[in-house]
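INFO worker-7 received task bundle
INFO bundle size: 2
INFO processing item 0
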Amino acid sequence: MEQSLLGIYKHTKSWKMYQLLGFAHDTETLEQCAVYQSLYDSKEFWNNAMWVRPKSMFFENIILDGKLVPRFEYVAPVE
């Protein structure tokens, strides 16, 4: 596993914090996916919900306010 990539990330659009826990493969496509957990309470889902998204999408750049920025910005390692 790519340990150096694990840690706390901020979602650039919502400013919510997540912990990148590791990586998994989709059973149908074998695509690598990022496995991450929200670090906030949510009424819509549940507190500290778990998420997966394609690894390429987790680390991609997006356009926000006319600037190219990372979708998730690395904040700190997990201690």
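INFO item 0 finished
INFO processing item 1
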Amino acid sequence: MDDRTKRRLLVGFATTLVSKAASTEIQLVQVPVLFHFWGETVFGVWLVLTGIPTYLSFSNIGFGSVAGNEMTMLMARKEQEAALSVFQSCWWLISLVLGVTVAAMSLALWLLPMGRLLNIETISEHDVSWALFWLGLAVLFGQLEQLLQSAYRCIARYSPMEIF
């Protein structure tokens, strides 16, 4: 294994380790802080609201992963134009799905009494709908993020630190 490959592996491992450690630390600090300032009732409502988009994020549509694998294989065969075509096609497909889903989600959140449906009385209907909208949007944009990460992987720029 050459020095460049060893360096890429080391930087990729370090970046992943720092990311996981930061995420863990945020989770360990976030719970007591939110519980202290919000109290158990509002914190419970927050857990219910964040649970819905989190559950949906587990049903990852997988376009970014599949496109990433295809782009990586194409780049390994030195077929850069084909890899770019896969990236662009998948970008537009995910963007279209995202747009339709955001429109449907917006309509549903506007028409349905989400607070009543979820039996949430602590915060207003308006706040429940907005919280679900923004949390849902974050999950949906995660699909585009996955495609972007796959694009970096296929050009052997796995880690953002690799640029430096």
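INFO item 1 finished
INFO post-check item 1: The chain has one domain: 39-158.
INFO post-check item 1: Residues 39-158 form one domain.
INFO worker-7 idle
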